Amino acid sequence: MSQSKIKVTAVAKAFGTNTVLKNVDLKVQAGEVVVILGPSGSGKTTLLRSLNFLEQPDSGTLEICGHRIEVVAGKGLSRADRQQITQLRQRTAMVFQSFNLFPHLTALQNVIEGLISVKKVAKPEAINKGMALLEQVGLADKADSYPARLSGGQKQRVAIARGLSMDPEVIFFDEPTSALDPELRDEVLLVMRNLANAGMTMLVVTHELRFAQEAADRVIFMEGGVIAKDATTEAFFSADSGERIQQFLRRY
Ligand SMILES: Nc1ncnc2c1ncn2[C@@H]1O[C@H](COP(=O)(O)OP(=O)(O)O)[C@@H](O)[C@H]1O
Ligand SMILES: [Mg+2]
After folding, report:
1. Full-model pTM
2. Hey, which of 126, 180, 201, 210 would disulfide with 170, CB 3.0 to 4.6 Å?
């Protein structure tokens, strides 16, 4: 058994005539933290969303947490494929730029909603787990607060706790700090760094270069729907990573 949590080959996706992913290959090992950098419109979000079929790739072979789906151009998904997708979604979590919390539920209720409705965990047990997760993201004292009463950084930490509630094997982050004021970003990045240090497998689209330098094992640079660079963090940020990378990094 391979220790790859993510292993995809030749993933392609077009929106109409706009080809957004051009036969992307990507492998992520258990415990790896991989940061995806790249200019706007390069396909980062589409790649992330394709990995849990929020966006259906046009073709390619995807193996996520041991669940394998081969998408053949022009052919629909089989029932077996759909079962694989349901299962891989239960093993992954996604954290979005916009936190997507339920406004009518408290922080704690947001965190335990999936435990109760999807995993059918008994309420007292769900509450215990939810409180432990809020503690982990530094928000135990906000358990009964509604999202409207939380800062953006607090909301994003609740969203991370909600993702963790399902015991994911991989977490996908899509620009988790981009909607936040600069002074609120560090509290979210700290939670993410702690997860990375605890061995979580993470695939993170971000513009936070310091986070990449401190937490990533590898950095991927996407441009025009292809992975233009896939390097260790050290190599990526070194002076000889190539002119295009240097040019991109200089903009920060
Ligand atoms: N749902 C969609 N429908 C049509 N075009 C889309 C859709 N989502 C993304 N795109 C297009 O795909 C390209 C890549 O977008 P995206 O994956 O969001 O890039 P990034 O996250 O790197 O900024 C862009 O040209 C974007 O306009
Ligand atoms: Mg994006």
Report:
1. 0.96
2. 201
